[in-house]
Amino acid sequence: MKNKIFRKLHIVSLGCSKNLIDSEVMGGQAAASGMLLVEKPDLADVVLINTCAFIRPAKEEALEVILSWAEIKKQSQSDLKIIVAGCLAQRYGKELLDEIPEVDLFIGTGEVGRFEEHLRELFGRNPRRRAVLSRPEFLMTAAYKRVLLPHVKTAYVKIAEGCSNACAYCAIPGIRGKARSRLPDDILLEVQSLTERGVCEIILIAQDTTAYGRDLKNRPTLAGLMSDLASLSNLRWLRLLYAHPAHLSSDVLETMAGSEKICRYLDLPVQHIDDTILKGMNRKVSSQTIRNLIFQARQMMPDVALRTSLMVGFPGETQRRFDRLWNFVKEARFDHLGVFTYSREEGTAAAMRPSRISENEKERRRDLILTEQADVSYTINQTLIGSVQEVILEEKSTQPGYAFIGRCRRQAPEIDGVTHLLKGGAEIGDMVSCRIIGADHYDLFGEILFDKTAPSKL
Question: Is the pLDDT of residue 452 over 80?
């Protein structure tokens, strides 16, 4: 038996849900090595900062967090160990090793599965500062034990890793590697294990979920995987994120429409609607295809909640091309929408293109779209008043008179609004039926129903 590492580890997980899974996997290895995971930073003698580097604001946030911990280490003059992992480490670890001497270890995205080995070397007889940046080939499997928060009812499941789309603005293929899918049986095994631990909502994620299976020998389909997962008895909700419009097929929509367990929620990150910009982005999809997919989804599922992500300020986005995007937001009427401003990333195709769009103009365009979307969201939410929604209760509400914050099937965690519920005989973690009694631009307000049709407690 390997010697135990009697240390206290605090994890700071930045960025997306895909990064969160890596944090949970590394946390699982740390726990297996004997380390105690602590939520309070001041109790830790080791901190793991799992970073994002997708766009400039994410890099800036990661550096700010790293430098704040470096300052804590200097001021306390303690033996605090700082480990930096994830996308920022993969891209800039070698440079940062010299620039931030307080960090003891940088590990790239390919080292997630070897985290315990790195811990043992860090606390071995001859520890040394290192940057371990191997090829980004790590792929999650069910064999890795993930550390989840106590009583968690929702868990993300990464069905693939990496991306082969080569969008002109995106550095992810260089950070995460080419697209590689997990075997269906392995995903089923992990989901089964998670539901046995009390998880009732599974959210399927990848850099491009709709490209799932294309790299595997037998070419399993996303629709087939979703159907198999929906058959698991302990699973209550199945949600799909990151459905690239160039790869979304009718069978996925049919599977979604035909299953009570699959949330009628479609995350379709279109990025833009102008064909010249789409071509410049290398999105491999036309504006007409995007419109057709939206029409098809609503024809098959009139109650579907649509979410998208848009980018403004991409090189070549003239005022006329932006106006097409702005008008599309009014036309498409997405339930949920996020907007990024273009960030020039070294090593990408778009980085070589001249851009005359100032940061102030990018911000102005983003604000215009968000203002328009606020009106759209408010109008849609008003139509939900009086409807009955199934809601999972996640935490206490800070709204006066309301007891809980939850989410209905129309709301994904972190990125969408929430549902506030009046006081009632329920507990956090319950899944209940509620009637919507109010709505604002993003959130819903409801009252819990207690009748024969209400789902039982989990």
Answer: no
